[in-house]
Amino acid sequence: MAESESASEETRAAPRTPEQLLAHLDATGVAYDLHRHPPLFTVEDSKALRGELPGGHCKNLFLRDRKGKMWLLVTLEDRPIDLKQLGAAFGGARLSFGSADRLMTYLGVIPGAVSPFALINDTGREVNVVLDKEMLEFDPLNYHPLSNEMTIAVSPAGLQAFLADLGYAPEILDLGALAE
């Protein structure tokens, strides 16, 4: 690990809790519906236990390239993602999944709890955010709020307001076109 990376890790604040995230959403006026459930680790777990929860159901991929640049890709749960094609769309990056340690360091969550709401823990704004254009057509959108034992449903406008409040200007890609 690079020396500068070690120093920045030592100065990182403790990850926010789900309760702190929900308080942040309340304070900034982002409306949401909260649903509690057993822990969900995969899209398959979610499909099996969500029942009739309406809206767009999403997956979140924490990715990195060989130079250490990171992305959070937020897309519809059934969207096939080809990392080679995606890397080409990102300017030729050779992408792989970020490790559980890196995920905890930058987003403050464990695998299975990744969502755009984990960006509240990226205090250095080191993670690039990419949203699936088609996903934003669904209302509401469903994500974990820093815990895979809860799901919150938010509007696309609420999601984008949250990201803007944190200082993110996500790239919105037509990921369906990449899969064709």
Percent of residues in helical segments? 25-40%
Mean pLDDT: 87
**CA(first)-CA(last) distance:** 37 Å
Counting helices, strands and paired strands, the structural category is alpha/beta
The CATH class assignment is Alpha Beta
| CATH level-four homologous superfamily name | YbaK/aminoacyl-tRNA synthetase-associated domain
Can you tell me the number of structural domains?
1
Identify the overall geometry. Answer: globular
Strand portion, in percent? 15-25%
CATH topology: YbaK protein
> Low-confidence segments, ≥5 residues, pLDDT <50?
1-8
Main sheet properties: 8 strands, mixed
* CATH architecture heading: Alpha-Beta Complex
The SSE order reads HHEHEEHEHEEEHEH
Query: DSSP helix count?
Result: 7
Radius of gyration: 16 Å
Number of strands: 8
